[in-house]
Request: fold
Amino acid sequence: SARIMNLYERNADMVEVSTMADFFGNRWSVNAVMMGNPKQTIFLMPSATIAKWFRKTSGPVGLHATVESGDLDVSASRNGDTLFLHIVNPQLDRAEEASIAVSGVPLGSVTAHTISPDRLDAYVDADHPDSFEPTTATGTASDGALTWNFPPASVTMLEIDASGIANG
Reply:
């Protein structure tokens, strides 16, 4: 789901509205929201969790972003002096580390929201509604660049303070 959202974000000049799931239901895995029976709590399916976090961690201005090595899938946007990077590590068995830099822009603090279940066979149901909720971590760039570790089979949404781009 996150790789598809990255694709949509990278091609936002051609994609005006998109969805990855039906809105709600009670038994299909293609639903965004599962309603269950009257005694169960309503919960988000993985595609809805991804969509929710992309919505929270995206800006109105798309940016070109590249990865020089590895298998990471990345898209980027900005809102004022905040850069948003969505990075998917599709590798099931290894973490990837990447150094992030923006030419001529000193990077500051970063907030990372990472969806990386403990097990590859993790799932969401009425008894496990939060299996794909992100964990949050913070960090700071060093010498204008940021190095971050992306766990296997994960999506990470980075919010990076880049105050130097607000006027440029």
Remarks:
- Helices lie at 2-10, 46-56.
- DSSP finds two helices and eleven strands in the chain.
- Residues 46-56 form the longest helix (11 residues).
